[in-house]
Every structure is written in structure tokens, then in C-alpha cells.
Amino acid sequence: MSAPGAERAARLLRASAAELADALAAGETTSVEITQAHLDRIAAVDGPVHAFLHVDAEGALAQAKASDERRAAGTLLSALDGVPIAVKDVLATEGMPTTCGSKILEGWVPPYDATVVRRLKEAGLPILGKTNMDEFAMGSSTEHSAYGPTHNPWDLDRIPGGSGGGSAAAVAAFEAPLALGTDTGGSIRQPGAVTGTVGMKPTYGGISRYGLVAMANSLDQVGPVTRTVLDAALLHEAIGGHDPRDSTSIDQPLPPLVEAARQGLTGDLTGLKVGVVTELSGDGYQPGVLARFQEGVDLLVKAGAEVVEVSCPHFVHALATYYLIMPCEASSNLAKFDAMRYGLRVWPSEDASAEEVMRATRDAGFGDEVKRRIILGTYALSSGYYDAYYGQAQKVRTLISRDFEAAFEKVDVLVSPTAPTTAFKLGEKLDDPIAMYLNDLATIPANLAGVPGISVPSGLADEDGLPAGFQILAPALADDRCYRVGAALEAALLEQWGGPLVPKEI
Amino acid sequence: MPEITRDEVAHLANLARIDLDDAELDHLAPQLSVILESVASLSGVAAGDIPPTSHALPLTNVFREDVVTPGLTPEQALSGAPEVEEQRFSVPRILGDEQ
């Protein structure tokens, strides 16, 4: 490629989705050019990053060509028509492999699209491929993927977070301008924090879960993974809203999210009340992460917000509550992988019974972490233990929701660091489940209560020069507040930094 | 202090239909004990009169009109099956010799 050509491609890769949409509208580029630039980027850097499990170059280019034809004919489908996207491999894609990072689904090609995937297609976004993840979304590092870990673009020896490390790394490494993730205990927000990207977990029920392979139904949510807050709002509006195929989907319109992000970008937060959660800082949090968080809080004050400290006393029990409720739901959900109707089938002997085939298949097809959680869930749901474990966790879940309700009577949003530390080294916590689980300390309460939360890059920690994240939590259905405050913080930080912080060239 | 023995893990694996070998049992049992120990802190946190939350949304039943909507064709439904016979899922034997 000629030097001017390479420069032009680099500009397309660095652009936000909103900027790409503007450039397409102005006739400065085409969807085919943008999509090809990202496919070339994937070919160049995904070897070392390994954000993708499957790349669909042919399909993406065909969708891009169709988008360019619609543009010429004046029949555009949406504001993001022609802007390519990557999709976490836990979402069903018709005609495209969907593995959930597991050997048990190797080679499975779904016969239908998840609702969010169908909405992407209906909005005209070319799908670049499927991104890597911890097996069945169980993990905080993508090291539990059966297909090998994803590497953090900021430092290839480090984890990109999890479970959606592939989506976050793809966006951070400029392999895609947009991606979809899913968040059960922090799987969108924590990868966002450690890769310096934006990740939003919407209100539970705000985005359809139809076609999302469930880990814990009462906690799972699909959401946007992007490099800017405005892009997240644009994507959220494209995929959100009621879906009759998901009985837990909320039957009312989304609040105006893009408008809220644009309002936030003006930088004025006068009249906003912000609560710093006492229980989500201090012990276990890295000093550099806390320093960047405090600077973020100061910037909100400068933007006109009133900041107070708020105590949510039961948040200290959120991790234990989560690690009971989630395995219980997961053990029940994963019972469907029984080697009968789809996926792997292993014969331990030629005349094995269905039950023997089931046992052998589930042993061969599931990785360590999945087995840990299935066994734990089976234990906690056993008669005699049910009340002590699952029943007790459900009650504490009520107390955590009440903490949120009480806090939101006093303030409009709650804030905290997104993850307690920056990205750790690959392998460092792989065989220490408890150390791994601690990554989700600050993100889990939102899942238990069903409230929305966004992670916005807060800068680089002094100790290691790695990205940290700033979390903004809002009441259920008030996702717009996450976008308004997130965009205001982003604008203030970009002004301070003189532009976005990006990983050194991979 | 809750502890989960190797035998218990073997029993649970049996209930969960996973064939764990000896090495896996040795590996998992102590890890599960540590996890259980760390979640034991919950006991006594919530008083008896606190209602349980099973779901973030206060939902009851959701109904739709009883009308036919498009679904998968038999070929699509069977497209991921390990084995197909006469437009059906073919499965290993489900009854033992004695049954």
C-alpha cells in the first residue's frame, strides 16, 4: 500500500463510529473502504492480539457493498448504516460459527440470529466477525477461552479483561470501531477499564437477550463496546428496546441516549448530584487506579456537579452473593449441553448409553472454570443446602437493591473505579479462582440490582502506565444519565490529555 | 467452616453429568472448598423477614397472542445435530439391557 493510502486507512481506523458515519454521509469514503481497512487491520494485528475467533471477510464486504448501494439509492437503514462491527461469540449469528469460547460448541452454526444481531443487520452494520471470550462468559481475563487467550493491546503479556476481552481488545487495537459485549458481573465494563475503552451495561431488560447463550439469566445483559461514549449511545439505540421474543425485555421506549451523550459533551453538569460509593474503594484497589478515579471526581465537580459520599453497606456482600446466584443459574442453564441435539458428541465406548455419552461429552467439552461453576451451582441448589446458600443469597440481593434505592434518593448517579486494578499478567491468576473473582468487586452490584453502568477510561495508572476505568451507575431505566455524565467526563479528560490515549503501535 | 470432600465433588459431578477423572477431582475439591468458605460470610447477613429477589425486574407472567409465527424448518432445527435419522435427532440408547 502506498504511503498516502496507508495514511488514509490509518485515519479511517482511528475514527469513531460517529465520525465514520459523518464521513460516509459527506461522501468522503465508502463502507467497502472502511470495512476493507478494518479487515486489513485484523489481518495485520490479530495474530498477536487474538481478539477474533472467526472473521467473515466475504460476508462483511458483501454487507458493505449493499450499504454503499443503499446510500447511492437514498434508502439508508440507520445513522450507522455502513459502519462495521464485531460481535461477541456468545450471540447467535445465522450462518456464522458461534462457539461461546467452548469446545462443546466447536463448529456449531446457529440456524437463527440473536435479536441484537438481527437489529444490527436491519440497521445496515457489516459484521466483521466473532470475538473471543472466556468459555460461556465465565471469567475476567479471556484465559478461560478454549481457543487461547486474547492479549491486551496495551501490553501483549497482559489480560484484556473478561469475559468480553475479545470485543474490548478488538476496539482498543482499532480492529473494529464498534463491538457487542455481554455483562453478567462486569464482562463489558471490566474489559473496557483495562483496555482503555468504553463499555456500557444497560438496565436489565433494556436490550433483548434472545439468542444470547445464557450464563445467568437474571444477570446477563447485552451492551455496547466502543471507543467513545457517543458511539456507545448510538449503538445502544440501534440494538435496544422491547423484543417480544424475550419475556424479560422491558416494554417501554428507551430514554433518549444519543441526546444525553451530546448534552454531556457540552461539559455542563450543573445541578447534577453525584455519590461516591464508600464501599467501592480503599482496600484491594491499586493506588494508581484510585488516583485517576479521584481526578475524575474532581473534573465532575469542575463541570458543576455536586459530589457527596454515599454508603451502600451491603455492597461488601455483593461478590459472595454473585458467586452463589451465578453458579446456580449457570449450572441449570448449561444442562442443555447434553450431546443430543447440537454440539459435541463423545462416545466413551461403541455401545455407550445416552447418559454415558452425556457424561463423557461434558467432561471433554467443558473447561475447568465451567466445571467449577456447574459443580458449585449443583451443590448450592442441593436439598439441604438450598436455603443456606441460594436462598440466603437471594435475600442479600434484596438488601443490595435497597442500598441502591436509598442511594438514588439522595443522588442522581453513583461513581466508583470500574475495576480494582489495571490489567494483570496472563497466567497470574489463572488457577486462583478467588483472586480472579475479585476483579468484579465494583461491577457486580449493578448486575444484582439490574441497574445500568458505564465504564469510561480515566487515564493511565502511575505504577504501570496501564489504563484504568471510571464507573458511573444510574437507577434502572435511567441509562441516559450514564451517557450524559460519561460524555462530560470524557470531554474533560480529552481536553486534559490533548486527545485520546491509545496503545503504542502493536 | 464449610468443606466439600472429594467424595462429595464426585457425587455432584455425577448429578451434573460430568465424568471427572481422579486428577480433576483432586484439583477441584480444594478449590471448591475455598470458594464455599469465601461465600459463607453471607450467612446471617439478611434477617428472616427479608424477601428474596430472584430477578431484577418485578415481572409476573408475560403473555402474547396465541397466533402462529414463523419458526425454524425441520432442516434448520436439525442442522447442528450430531446425528440425524429420518428427519429426527438420532440419540444413543436410552434404556439399559435389563429395562
From TrEMBL, chain A:
E.C. no: 6.3.5.7
Cited function: Allows the formation of correctly charged Gln-tRNA(Gln) through the transamidation of misacylated Glu-tRNA(Gln) in organisms which lack glutaminyl-tRNA synthetase. The reaction takes place in the presence of glutamine and ATP through an activated gamma-phospho-Glu-tRNA(Gln).
Top-rank taxon, per record: Bacteria
Keyword terms of this UniProt record: ATP-binding, Ligase, Nucleotide-binding, Protein biosynthesis
Presence of the UniProt keyword Ligase in the record: yes
Protein's UniProt name: Glutamyl-tRNA(Gln) amidotransferase subunit A
Active site positions: K88 (charge relay system), S163 (charge relay system), S187 (acyl-ester intermediate)
UniProt family annotation: Belongs to the amidase family. GatA subfamily.
Gene label: gatA
Domain Amidase: 33-482
Pfam family, one: Amidase
Catalysed reactions, as listed in the record: L-glutamyl-tRNA(Gln) + L-glutamine + ATP + H2O = L-glutaminyl-tRNA(Gln) + L-glutamate + ADP + phosphate + H(+)
TrEMBL record, chain B:
Keyword Transport recorded: no
SUPFAM superfamilies for this protein: Glu-tRNAGln amidotransferase C subunit (SSF141000)
EC number: 6.3.5.-
Keywords noted in UniProt: ATP-binding, Ligase, Nucleotide-binding, Protein biosynthesis
Catalytic activity: L-glutamyl-tRNA(Gln) + L-glutamine + ATP + H2O = L-glutaminyl-tRNA(Gln) + L-glutamate + ADP + phosphate + H(+); L-aspartyl-tRNA(Asn) + L-glutamine + ATP + H2O = L-asparaginyl-tRNA(Asn) + L-glutamate + ADP + phosphate + 2 H(+)
Statement: the UniProt record of this protein carries the keyword Ligase: yes
Function description: Allows the formation of correctly charged Asn-tRNA(Asn) or Gln-tRNA(Gln) through the transamidation of misacylated Asp-tRNA(Asn) or Glu-tRNA(Gln) in organisms which lack either or both of asparaginyl-tRNA or glutaminyl-tRNA synthetases. The reaction takes place in the presence of glutamine and ATP through an activated phospho-Asp-tRNA(Asn) or phospho-Glu-tRNA(Gln).
Assigned protein family: Belongs to the GatC family.
Protein name: Aspartyl/glutamyl-tRNA(Asn/Gln) amidotransferase subunit C
GN (gene name): gatC
